[in-house]
Amino acid sequence: MCRTLGASLAGIEGVAVEVEVRISSLLPRVDIVGLPEAAVREAGARVRGAIAAIGRPFPDRRITVNLAPAGLRKSGAGLDLPIAVGILAAAGVLEREPLEGRAFLGELALDGRLRPVQGSLALVLACRDAGHPQVIVPTANAAEAALAPNVDVRGAPDLEAVLEHLTGASTLPRAEAPPLIDGAVTGPCLSDVRGQERGKRALEITAAGGHALLLQGPPGAGKTMLARRLAPLLPPLSFDEALEVTLIHGAAGRLPREGPLAMRRPFRAPHHTASLAGLLGGGSPPRPGEISLAHRGVLFLDEFPEFERRSLEALRQVLEDRRVRISRARLSCEFPADFILVAASNPCQCGWYRSGKRDCRCDEAAIARYRRRISGPLLDRIDLHVQLSALSWRELDQPAGAITSHDVRDRVVAARTHQQRRGVRANAEISDAALDASVRATIEARRLLGRAVDRLQLSARAARRVLRVARTVADLEGEDRVGASALAEALSYRNES
């Protein structure tokens, strides 16, 4: 009997899996137990082919492989390598001492090559926490896995190289974490947008405070152009935030091609036909959805009213908790979902209601039905509502604007610095308990808010969100207290929906 260590994904987190191999004198067969999924059950055939391909003897007896803990459903093909090493050690081909303190991850090809696995960073972290300081992974996963701190990661091209490393015939090279790329502004520039100065200002406030934004206007008004220019305005990811994004995208198999460490803010723009599971996450085993792939970045929902009602209503709780919980009969997973929501909507089904460009073909009942697709409680959770008007050709034919994304980003970074000194990453995250101490509104500002709450019939939640937006406006102006002018600007974005 022999024991090795591997790992399996549970959502976006890795779970250490102890692989127990026993060889007995019964009819030849490979039994894999411990709640394996189909890909894990098929490991026996891949392991047999890989061991035969490198010229090592495969035991002609009964092989029982137990994956512990038995109550956790195992998924993926990343357990191929620890199963193969365990079989060879149990058969006496390998000594057992070199296996101590080492963990193994990787999918085996029939010729013995090691194929990459999803979520290698999370899997390596699980092995480290289980007390195994050295982890052998496929070469293609080495750079991503090396991001895990305090772990000796070795990249191997095939099973033969792993066996030579364990026997001392050769040594696998230690993987090194890739250098961090700079946080320079990349993507479309804000100066490309002609006109729409109010939309640009709302975009700056959104980036500075992490607020949710709703853009409304006729087709061609620039809603999508503005939304796609938000991510470059955000501050660069810190190393810890980059690791969070890498864990999520690695588990979903969506790491960027330019490098294993995601150093740029995600921008996700799912189509309005996306399912509830596609947005929130799900499947078997559960995988992160679009809202988690947008973690620490931007989630852009174009044609906002066209999304399924269930999907839109599910966003309400996510916007409050900044995470989503997927519950299944055998497993519950919690995915982070701290993103900036940007939604875009036409004023009606045809898109031309009060546009001044074309005649609207919708009657009043159709317009009301279209607007009711977005519920009041969901609108209440969106901080800034901006109406964009159609531009004339004279406005569109103007030269590029003087204000660039670099200029706005500098102001955003300065505002975020003020917020971090108050103990929050962004003003949208200020708790209700700390709101008064953080906002520090003047008497004139509070009186203005009181009149606006009564006149506009704002809810208590909406009033608190107005205060957070006003705090962001004051931060952009470098003001220590929130005055009446900052509060008035914040209120103006509540009176446009």
Report on this structure.
The protein is an alpha/beta fold. The chain folds into two domains: 2-167, Ribosomal Protein S5, domain 2 (2-Layer Sandwich); 211-392, P-loop containing nucleotide triphosphate hydrolases (Rossmann fold). It contains 20 helices and 18 strands. The chain has helices at 38-41, 43-53, 80-90, 120-129, 142-145, 159-167, 197-209, 223-227, 239-251, 276-280, 290-293, 309-321, 364-372, 376-380, 393-396, 405-421, 435-439, 443-456, 460-476, 484-492; strands at 2-10, 13-24, 29-33, 62-68, 102-104, 107-108, 114-115, 134-138, 152-156, 213-216, 267-268, 281-282, 287-288, 298-301, 323-327, 332-336, 340-345, 384-387. It has a five-stranded parallel beta sheet with strand order 11-14-17-10-18. A hairpin with a 4-residue loop joins β15 and β16. α7 runs parallel beside α16 (405-421) and α19 (460-476) crosses α20. The chain is elongated. It starts with a strand and ends in a 5-residue tail after the last helix. The mean pLDDT is 91.
